[in-house]
């Protein structure tokens, strides 16, 4: 059974203690505490790390492995085909995407989540903190479950909150999710994501920090970088990612673009976008566009470091854009529409540039590809987006949350009651 902590009265002063200023790049990242026992909970849609596509799962893997490197004990709750040097606990043998289970079938994912939280509730002394990760509307049960455990917890929001529910799912039941969310210490992944969350939420949210993603050392290329003339686009092929516009830019620039990524075969709108708009454009222009399907992390690195520019004509308020820093870490500059967190990641003339249209993107390809110091770009990306720095920022937030709840008397010794 899942247990619930007794209600604790929190004064306004105590609430303010957890409304901490965002952890940013130049903060003191010194941690003087003991090694922590950390539960990382991932939804079972993709393995951790992912086989090909899965930005959230890649971040969870990078963070978990680096926390182990730094001496912490990590228990990863994820699908059974996941891999970690920490301890793996699984309630779903194979990731749901590999089983071709559609996003609308929540039951399997909820089974994994409920059992994960049941394990934590039954063994609270095994965990100093629980770190959950929320990236889609299909996993909103996480907010309900974290509200019911007597262990300090924190949640990273990996997408826009409340996701696409703002447009087509906002209903009577959402007020409960907002209620649970406002009592959960939340981490945003960019300043822009934080702004959007605060604007769109029906209730004030407890966002205690902004922590950008980080990449492991093996993602940063070493030595000489010798790009070819081809352009590249990598991601999930959906309208919001602007795949079609990247191809149109390549055609107008008379350059070849390599398209790598997965086709989302679970939602009709995404299927139609690929087969009616993207694929016909590729087939009609074989000299300018090639679709190679999904790629592994190793293949992605090779593709990026050999490409002239990464085109990113995004059509939505992307909360971060992991593939952009992946490209920069491989010495591949990024030309992007100025949406979402792109303005926080791209420094014109240093690691890429912005374009307001496909035509402007075409006009900037030559100058961006020729004039940027690719080796310096890799170095700058490592300085700002190393997984070591990301992990240290999270550990500081873990300790702040743990200390906050201990000061309230919210500890593992609290009497609990069954739901």
From TrEMBL:
GO molecular function: glycosyltransferase activity
InterPro entries, sorted: Glyco_trans_1 (IPR001296), Glyco_trans_4-like_N (IPR028098), Glycosyltransferase_grp1 (IPR050194)
Pfam family for this entry, one: Glyco_transf_4
UniProt domain Glycosyl transferase family: residue ranges: 219-376
Every Glycosyltransferase subfamily 4-like N-terminal domain range: 53-215
Protein's name according to its UniProt entry: Glycosyltransferase family 4 protein
């Amino acid at each position: 059974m899942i247990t619930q902590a007794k209600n604790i009265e929190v004064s306004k002063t105590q609430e303010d203690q957890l409304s901490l200023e965002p952890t940013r790049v130049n903060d003191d990242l010194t941690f003087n505490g003991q090694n922590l026992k950390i539960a990382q909970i991932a939804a079972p849609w993709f393995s951790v790390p992912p086989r090909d596509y899965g930005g959230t799962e890649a971040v969870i893997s990078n963070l978990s492995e680096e926390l182990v490197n730094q001496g912490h004990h990590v228990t990863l709750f994820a699908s059974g085909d996941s891999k970690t040097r920490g301890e793996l606990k699984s309630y779903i043998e194979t990731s749901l995407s590999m089983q071709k289970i559609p996003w609308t079938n929540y039951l399997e994912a909820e089974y994994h989540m409920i059992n994960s939280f049941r394990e934590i509730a039954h063994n609270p002394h095994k965990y100093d903190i629980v770190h959950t990760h929320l990236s889609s509307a299909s996993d909103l049960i996480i907010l309900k479950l974290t509200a019911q455990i007597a262990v300090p917890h924190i949640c990273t929001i990996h997408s826009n909150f409340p996701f696409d529910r703002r447009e087509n799912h906002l209903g009577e039941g959402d007020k409960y999710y907002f209620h649970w969310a406002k009592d959960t210490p939340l981490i945003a992944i960019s300043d822009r994501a934080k702004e959007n969350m605060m604007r769109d939420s029906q209730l004030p949210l407890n966002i205690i920090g902004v922590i950008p993603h980080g990449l492991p050392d093996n993602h940063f290329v070493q030595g000489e970088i010798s790009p070819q003339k081809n352009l590249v686009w990598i991601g999930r092929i959906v309208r919001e990612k602007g795949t079609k516009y990247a191809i149109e830019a390549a055609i107008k620039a008379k350059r070849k673009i390599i398209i790598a990524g997965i086709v989302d075969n679970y939602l009709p709108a995404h299927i139609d976008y690929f087969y009616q708009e993207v694929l016909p454009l590729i087939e009609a222009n074989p000299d300018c566009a090639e679709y190679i399907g999904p790629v592994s992390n190793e293949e992605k690195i090779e593709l990026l470091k050999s490409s002239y520019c990464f085109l990113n004509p995004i059509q939505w308020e992307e909360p971060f854009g992991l593939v952009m820093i992946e490209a920069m870490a491989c010495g591949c500059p990024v030309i992007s529409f100025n949406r979402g967190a792109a303005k926080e990641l791209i420094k014109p003339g240093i690691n890429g540039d912005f374009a307001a249209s496909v035509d402007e993107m075409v006009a900037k390809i030559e100058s961006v590809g020729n004039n940027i110091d690719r080796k310096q770009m890799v170095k700058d990306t490592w300085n700002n987006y190393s997984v070591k720095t990301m992990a240290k920022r999270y550990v500081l937030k873990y300790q702040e949350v743990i200390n906050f709840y201990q000061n309230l008397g919210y500890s593992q010794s609290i009497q609990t009651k069954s739901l």
